[in-house]
Amino acid sequence: MSLDYENDGAFHAKLIEEVLSQYPDKAAKRRKKHLSVAKSGDEAGEEGEVVSECDVKSNIKSIPGVMTIRGCAYAGSKGVVWGPIKDMVHISHGPVGCGQYSWSQRRNYYVGTTGIDTFGTMQFTSDFQEKDIVFGGDKKLEQIIDEIEGLFPLNNGMSVQSECPIGLIGDDTEAVSRNKAKEHGKTIVPVRCEGFRGVSQSLGHHIANDAIRDWVFEKKNVEFEAGPYDVNVIGDYNIGGDAWASRILLEEIGLRVVGNWSGDATLAEIERAPKAKLNLIHCYRSMNYICRHMEEKYGVAWMEYNFFGPSQIEASLRKIAKHFGPEIEEKTEKVIGKYRPLIDAVIAKYRPRLEGNTVMLYVGGLRPRHVITAYEDLGMVIVGTGYEFAHNDDYQRTGHYVRNGTLIYDDVTGYELEKFIEGVRPNLVGSGIKEKYPVQKMGIPFRQMHSWDYSGPYHGYDGFAIFARDVDLAINNPVWGLYDAPWKKSPRRGRAMAAE
Amino acid sequence: MPQSAEKILDHAPLFREPEYRQMLAEKKLNFECPHPDQIVTDQREFTKTWEYREKNLAREALVVNPAKACQPLGAVFAAAGFERTMSFVHGSQGCVAYYRSHLSRHFKEPASAVSSSMTEDAAVFGGLKNMVDGLANTYQLYDPKMIAVSTTCMAEVIGDDLHSFIENAKDENSVPRDFDVPFAHTPAFVGSHVDGYDGMVKGILEHFWKGQERREAAGTINIIPGFDGFCVGNNRELKRLLDLMSVSYTFIQDASDQFDTPSDGEYRMYDGGTKIEDVKKALNAEATLSLQYYNTRKTLEYCEQSGQETASFHYPLGVQATDEFLMKVSALSGKEIPETIRLERGRLVDAMADSQSWLHGKKYAIYGDPDFVYAMARFVMETGGEPTHCLATNGASAWEAEMKELLASSPFGKDAQVWAGKDLWAMRSLLFTEPVDLLIGNSYGKYLERDTGTPLIRLMFPIFDRHHHHRFALMGYQGGLRVLTTILDKIFDKLDRETSETGVTDYSYDLTR
Q1: What is the bridge-based pairing of β-strands A230-236 and B417-420?
Q2: Is B159 on the interface with A (CB under 8 A)?
Q3: What's the catalysed reaction (chain A) (predicted)?
Q4: Domain spans of chain A, in order of start
Q5: Alpha-carbon span A79 to A84, nearest angstrom
Q6: Cβ neighbourhood burial of B13 (10 Å; 0-12, 13-18, 19+)
Q7: Residues of B (1-40) whose Cβ lies below 8 Å from A
Q8: Residues 36-55 of B with CB under 8 A from A
Q9: d(Cα B380, Cα B376) in Å, to the nearest integer?
Q10: A230-342 has CATH 3.60.150.10 classification
Q11: I need a labelling partner for A249 at 20 to 30 A (CA). Which of A222, A497, B258, B405 fits?
C-alpha cells in the first residue's frame, strides 16, 4: 500500500533557512550540512527504487552547547547491544550515574527469575570513588567479579561496560577479564565503550559488535544440531516484546529462530549464531557489523527486513521466504492470508480516524525510516524525519521511504526541532522522552518511538494493531481540545507560516 | 490468533495468550540453555536466608541497585531552580541526555540542559574549545539569563579548569563579559547527586556574593530546599506557610514552576525560579535555612562565612519536624506563628489520632536520600510505627550517627537498624530475613516489592511508574496529611486484598475500618 503524496519542500527549505539564521556563523555553517529537504530521485514509486534523496552529512561530531539529543558509546553498548543479554551480568564500570540513569529504561522484555538466573532489570556498578580514579580500578574490578560469582552464581557470564574514566586512567580491563574468565571458567567480556568515544551511541554499537566477535565467538565448543531453516534475528531488542511478535511469524512460516540478538537472549544464543543459515537484520545500524563479519568468516548470509506495518511485513516475509524456496514461500502466503482479516479490520477501524494526519519523526538509527510505511498504512503522511546517529548508508536507505519535499534533520538540536515542529505543526510527533513534554506543551500529540511510550510490541501483525490503537489514542484524545481557557480571547495557534 | 481489531491486546495480556506462552516455553527449552528449574529454585530460596544475607552485606566492591545518582544530576536540578538558567555540563554528551531523561521521567516535564560534547580529541587536548564554542551557541540559541556550568567525570579526570575556561570564553566573546556564568566542579566519583546540588548552589551564591558588601536586613531569611523530587508540591506549600506568617523570605533554588509548567499551547523552556536580583539581595539576609542538611553542607558553610546565621533541617515532614521549622522561622523573623497554622497542626494530629490503631506497631523499611530517610523515620515513630531498616546509599558515618541519635530518642526506634552506604540488593536480604510491613522509597523499590512481597510506598525521587505524586506536598502539616493518607491507603488496600476471598477470608472484609 503506497500513499501518493508530496511534501511542501519550499516551505521546509524556508524553515531551515530561518533556523540557521539564529546560529552564530560558525555553528550555522556546520549545522547547514545536516539539514535538507528530500528531493525526487530517478524513478519514484517502484518497489526497491529510491523514492527520494536525503542529502545530509551524518555521523560527525555534535556541536557544543546546542542541546543535541544524542547519547554516548556506553549507551550504545550497555544500553542497546549488551544490556538485553539476560543471563549475563553487565557491570557498569565507573561512577554510579551511567548505570543508574539507564537502569530498566529500555524495556527489553525477557523471561527469567531476575537476580537469580537473569539480570536484565538490575544495576551492577563499580561505583567508582576518587581513590579508584587515582590508583586505578583493576583490583576493584577483580573483586567485583569475584563477588558476582559468589552472590549470583547462576550467571552465565559477565560484561564489563567501560564508562568514561576507565579509558582515561589507563585501566587494563582486558587483562582482568581474561584472568578472571580463566579462574571462574566463565565468559567475561571487556567492552571499551567509554562515553567520549565516537560521536554518538553508534560507535558503542560497533565496539559492542566487535567485542562479541573477539570475546564470544569461537571461545567455546558449541554443540548444536543445525537445521536447514535456522535463522538468527539480529538487531531486535524486544522492546515491549517486539522480538516475540516477530518470532511468532517467522516460526509460522516454517523457520527456526535459533538466536535472537539481543532482546530476551541468552549467551548461548549469541554463541551459536554462526551456525545459522541466515541472519535477519532488523536494526541495521546497530548490528550490521557482526552480520558482515559472520558473512565473511562463516558464510552466513544476511538480509535486512522490516516488520513495521503490514505492507512492509508482507514484503519482508516474502523476501525472506524466497531465500528458502517454495516450501517456505507457500507457508508464507498462508500466514499472510491468515493475518489479512486482522489487518483489514484494524485498518478499517483506524484509517478513517487517522487519514491525512501529518507526522514528524526523530529517532535513533533505524526507525526514522523503518516506521514510515506503518504510518502510511494508516493513511498518515510523513512530513519530516531524522536520525540521532545514522550514517550515510542509513540516509541512502531512507531515500526508499520518504517523499519528495520531506524535511530531513540529522542530529537535530533542541532548538531546531522545536522550531521545525512549531512551523510545521504536524498532527503527531514521534520521538523520545526528552522531546515528549515540550511537544505536548505545544498542544501537539506525541508518541515515544524508543520505548513505545510504555506500550508495545509494535513489530509484527500483532504489534501493528497495538501501534494503530496507540497512534489513534494519542491523536484523538480530548485533552488537546482543552488547552485554551474559554474566557481568554487569544488568536488560535497556527502555523508560523502558511503551509501546504 | 490472539489479536483482534475489536479488542487489541498489548504486551501485558498478549503474551499471556497460549500461542505466545508455548512459543516462549519452546524457546527456553530448545535455545536458551537454561539452568535446571530445581537449581534456580534452590538459588532463589538461598537468597532468602541469613547465610546469603551475611555474604551479601559483606560485599566490599560490588554495588547492586544503588539508591543514589551522580553529582551532575544534582547540579542540573539545582540550576533549574533559577530564573532563565540553562545548565551547561562540560564533558561527554551522553551524560546530559541521561540527566534530562531522568528528570523528565520523574516530573513528566521538559528538562533542558546542554553539553559541551567533548569527544576523544578533547580528552587529549582538553575541552577549552568546546567551552568557548559551546557557551556562544547556548547563549545565542537559548536566550538564557544565566548559564550554570557543571562537569561530567570525563572533564574531571582530565582536569579541565572551569574558572579559567569560562574566563577564556568571555575573552573570546562567547558571552558578554558581564553575563553570569557560575560554575561548580561536580565529579561523579565523589559523593552523589545531593553533593552536586550543594556544589552548584554554592557556586551560584559565590558568583553573586563574592566581593559584595553585606548589609544585613534583619528578620529576612533565605530558604534552600535541597534536591527534592517533590519540590513542586513542597516549595509551594512552604511558601504558603511563610506567607501566612508574613515572613520576608527568599527561596534560593526553586524549581517548583520549572517542573510544573501548564499546558496551554506554549512550551516554556524556562519558568519561575529564583530571580537573579533576589539571589544578589539574599546576601543581606539575616539567616539562611537549609531544608536538607546533607544537600547543603558546603553551601551553609559559605553562608556562615558570609556573615549569616544558618540552621538546617532534615526535610521538615511530620508534626515535630514542622514545629521546629516554624519555630525557627518565627524566632529568626520575629513573626508569630498564626492561629490558622496552629489549627492546621491540630488537624494533622487529629487525623493521626483517628488512624493510630492502624499505624501503631507497624514495621517499616525506609530508604532514600539521607535527609528524607531521617524525616520519614521520625514521622513513622510519631505515628507509633517502627522504622526497622533505615538505609541511605549516599549516607555516611555522620548520617548514621545522627540517625542513631534520633532512633534512640523514641521507644519506637529501639529495634531500628541504620544501613549507611548499603544498596537495594542489601535491602532485599534485610527484607527477607527481618521482614517489615511496609517499604518506603522510590520506583526502584518495586523490584523489592515483587521479590519480597513488601508493599511499596513511593515518596522519594525518582518516581517513574506513578504519576503526579510529586505535585503534592510532603512537608509541613498539610504534607503530613498527604503522607499519612498514602500510608493508610496502602495498609487498607492490602488488608482488603487479603480479606476479599469469598467465603474464605471475607468475614473480615469490613465496610468500616
Answers
A1: unpaired
A2: no
A3: N2 + 8 reduced [2Fe-2S]-[ferredoxin] + 16 ATP + 16 H2O = H2 + 8 oxidized [2Fe-2S]-[ferredoxin] + 2 NH4(+) + 16 ADP + 16 phosphate + 6 H(+)
A4: 9-62+354-454, 73-216, 230-342
A5: 8
A6: exposed
A7: 1-6, 8-11, 14-15, 19-20, 23-24, 27-28, 31-35, 39-40
A8: 39-40, 43-44, 47, 52, 55
A9: 6
A10: no
A11: A222
A496 touches chain B (CB under 8 A): no
Is there a catalytic annotation at residue A75?
A: yes
CB contact under 8 A, A65 and B141: yes
Nearest to A456 among B10, B187, B268 (CB): B10
| CA A147 to each of CA A88, A140, B58, B426, B432: distance values in angstroms, whole numbers, following the listed order | 14, 10, 10, 13, 20
Task: Please tell me whether residue B66 adopts helix, strand or coil conformation.
Answer: coil
Pair A11, A37: CB distance under 8 Å: no
Pairing, β A89-93 against β A157-162: parallel
Q: pTM of the full predicted structure? A: 0.97
Instruction: Say whether B118 and A241 touch across the interface (CB within 8 A).
Output: no
Query: Residue B40 and residue A94: Cβ atoms within 8 Å?
Result: no
pLDDT digit string (tens) for chain A, length 500 residues: 568 899 999 999 999 999 999 999 999 999 999 999 999 765 444 455 567 889 899 999 999 999 999 999 999 999 999 999 999 999 999 999 999 999 999 999 999 999 999 999 999 999 999 999 999 999 999 999 999 999 999 999 999 999 999 999 999 999 999 999 999 999 999 999 999 999 999 999 999 999 999 999 999 999 999 999 999 999 999 999 999 999 999 999 999 999 999 999 999 999 999 999 999 999 999 999 999 999 999 999 999 999 999 999 999 999 999 999 999 999 999 999 999 999 999 999 999 999 999 999 999 999 999 999 999 999 999 999 999 999 999 999 999 999 999 999 999 999 999 999 999 999 999 999 999 999 999 999 999 999 999 999 999 999 999 999 999 999 999 999 999 999 987 655 544 443 33
Three state DSSP letters for A383-441: EEECECCCCHHHHHHHCCCCCCCCEEECCCEHHHHHHHHHHHCCCEEEECHHHHHHHHH
- Nearest by CB to B60, from A143, A436, A484: name it: A143
The residue assigned the cell 580529541 is: B121
The verdict on whether B95 is a catalytic residue reads no
- Give the Cα separation of A433 and B64 in Å (integer): 26
Domain A9-62+354-454 has CATH 3.40.50.1980: yes
Active site residue B319: no
- Same fold flag, A9-62+354-454 and A73-216: yes
- Sheet containing strand B85-90, edge to edge, reads B114-115, B85-90, B146-151
Q: Among all residues of chain A, which has the CA nearest to that of B108?
A: A437
Class of domain A73-216: alpha beta
* Helix B71-79 / helix B93-107 crossing angle, nearest 10 deg: 60
Q: What integer pLDDT is reported at residue A488 of this predicted model?
A: 87
